[in-house]
C-alpha cells in the first residue's frame, strides 16, 4: 500500500507536472506571463490532480490486489475457515487494509505534489526566462496551506474508497478463478468511478464554502 507504490506514483506525478507546465508555458508566453506557470502547476496539482492521479494509480494497483487476495481466499475457503474459528474476516482482513491505505495515501499525495512541482520547474526554467528562484518564490506565494490540506484530505477519502471497494469486491467474489478476475476488474472500476464522483462533490462544496 505504500513504499512499493512510490516509483510509479512519482513517475506519473513528474510527467503530469511536466505536461501541465509545458502546455501552460506555451499559452502564457503569448501574454508575457511565463512566471504564472508556477501558479498553474502548484494549484492544479496540490488541489486536484495529485490526489486524483494517485487515487487512480492505487485503485489499479492496490485496490485490485486487495480484491484478488480476498477473492483467492474465498476460492481456497480460507475465509470460511476463519469464520469457523470465530474470527471476523472484516476485523482480521479488511480493517488493516483500510487503515494501511488511509494512512499511506496522504503521504503518496504529498510526494506527488513535490515531484510534480519539480517537473513543472524543469519545463519553466528550460523553456522560458523563469529562474529557479523565481519559480520557487511564485510557488510559495501561490500555493497556500489550505490548498495542500485539501489535496491531502482528498487523499485520505480516496484511500478509504479504494480499500473498501477492493475488499468489498473481493469478499463478494465467486468461488472460481474466473470470478476472482471479475472481482478484481470490478474493484478497479468501482474505485475509479467513486473517486471521480467524490472529487466532483468536493469541487462543488469547496467552491460554495470558498475554500
Description of the molecule:
The chain has 211 residues and is mainly α. It is 85% helix and 0% strand. The protein is built from 7 helices and no strands. It has helices at residues 6-28, 37-75, 78-84, 89-127, 132-142, 145-171, 177-209. The mean pLDDT is 89.
Number of helices: 7
- Helical content class: over 70%
Total strand segments: 0
Unreliable parts: none
Shape: elongated
What is the rounded Rg? 20 Å
Element order, helices and strands? HHHHHHH
Average pLDDT over all residues = 89
Beta-strand percent range = under 5%
Oligomer: single chain
Largest sheet: none
Separation, N- and C-terminal Cα atoms: 30 Å
Label the structural class.
mainly alpha
Based on the model shown, name its key terms.
211 residues, mainly alpha, elongated
List the helices and strands and how they pair.
Blueprint: H1 6-28, H2 37-75, H3 78-84, H4 89-127, H5 132-142, H6 145-171, H7 177-209
Helix pairs in contact: 1-2, 1-4, 2-4, 2-5, 2-6, 2-7, 4-6, 6-7
Concise account of the structure shown:
The protein is built from seven helices and no strands. It has helices spanning 6-28, 37-75, 78-84, 89-127, 132-142, 145-171, 177-209.
